[in-house]
Amino acid sequence: MSNELGSGLVEFESLVKDGAVELQKHIEVGDFDGAIKIIQELSEARHNSFYNEVGFLTRSLHDAIRDFQVDSMDLVSGEGEATTKITDASDRLNYVIETTSAAANKTMDMVDGSVPVASELQIRAKELRKDWGRLIQRDLTPQEFRDLYKRIDVFLAYADESATTLHSNLNTILLEQGYQDLTGQVIARVNDLIRDVEEKLVHLVAVAGRVDSISGIEHQEKESDHDDTRGHGPAINKQNNPEVLNSQDEVDDLLSSLGF
Amino acid sequence: MKILIVDDFSTMRRIIKNLLRDLGFTNTVEADDGTTALPILQAGSIDFLVTDWNMPGMTGIELLRAVRADEKLKTIPVLMVTAEAKRDQIISAAQAGVNGYVVKPFTAVALKEKIEKIFERIDAAK
């Protein structure tokens, strides 16, 4: 597209180059009439090329705007409010936030439910083991032995029950990880949409850029220096950014170099 | 020891709360950004502040600066637990007077280490 856009100008540029060589030749031999003729030809070519380019750009710009409008109408209004692509994408991303949050909470519920069970098992096993050791040393009175006998029975029942609870909690945690699949699919779809919109925008920007260069409009670049105070969120592609530290160790090194 | 945990994501607050509980700190309160954290701090009784950086409303770095600028609050130890890992940000947190900086995702060991280090320093300074 950009080649197509530039073809008129490239033609004009080679015409100017050739003309300049010709012009120099005429001036060298003192043929000023010939030289002026070439200057006139170039001036005419410039006008023609300019008008052609403007005409071509007008059509391209018109097409790009029309394409984008059609797509963006589809994006922001769609058929009926609820089905527009942008609102749909934002609903989808909200779904990702909700799903990941629900999965994280469910997982933490299971962990919260399991930690006391594991602790209790550990405490009871330790106590039993102490008395079991005394039994092996033949250090128990008959009464203590009878107690131990009963306690082991209670412990085994508890161990069985606890293992069932832990097993079920671990299974729930495992199943909860399904959020990765669900949210992954949703994010992939939103990504497709973003790529599509980007493509259309790039096209529009390319045409607009040619319009600027033909018409000589200059835009002032906005300073896009992002404020550190507001934060940047988790760094993606850390390895490729020398400004971002890759690990806690690097953070610690930096802080200690600052006297921490 | 009463600890205030400031993070806009409730799951992250819960993770930090659970880790702190494992370390023996059972008395915690929560806030979801600097704006809601400041009144809790100003009400007194908070001994330690754990804060995220990137939050809507008042960010963690702004909260840290506000705490250090407040005559009553300026000695509270502040631990930052955040995904923000730009060199300049860590330097500005250090300049603002942060006591520790943990980058997300973090481990229980890293959190424990930083908290212990902060208390060691405080005890040594006494």
Task: Summarize the entry for a quick read.
Helix content of chain A is 79%, strand content 0%.
List the helices and strands and how they pair.
The complex is a heterodimer of chains A (260) and B (126).
Chain A: H1 2-28, H2 32-76, H3 85-136, H4 142-176, H5 179-215, H6 248-257
Helix pairs in contact in A: 1-2, 2-5, 3-4, 3-5
Chain B: E1 3-6, H1 10-22, E2 28-31, H2 34-42, E3 48-51, H3 60-69, E4 78-82, H4 87-95, E5 100-103, H5 108-125
Helix pairs in contact in B: 2-3
Query: Helix count of chain A?
Result: 6
Specify the structural class of chain B: alpha/beta
Largest interface: A-B, 26 and 31 residues
Helical proportion of chain B, percent range = 40-55%
Oligomer: heterodimer
Distance between the termini of chain A: 56 Å
The amount of helix of chain A comes to over 70%
How does this model look, in words?
The complex is a heterodimer of chains A (260) and B (126). Chain A has helices spanning 2-28, 32-76, 85-136, 142-176, 179-215, 248-257. Chain A is mainly alpha-helical. In chain A, helix 2 runs antiparallel to helix 5 (179-215) and helix 3 runs antiparallel to helix 4. Chain A is elongated, with a radius of gyration of 38 Å. The two termini of chain A are 56 Å apart. The model of chain A has no long low-confidence stretch (mean pLDDT 82). Chain B is α/β, with parallel strands linked by helices and 126 residues long. Chain B contains 5 helices and 5 strands, in the order βαβαβαβαβα. Chain B has helices spanning 10-22, 34-42, 60-69, 87-95, 108-125; strands at 3-6, 28-31, 48-51, 78-82, 100-103. Chain B has a 5-stranded parallel β-sheet with strand order 2-1-3-4-5, sandwiched between helices. The interface between A and B is medium-sized, with 26 and 31 residues.
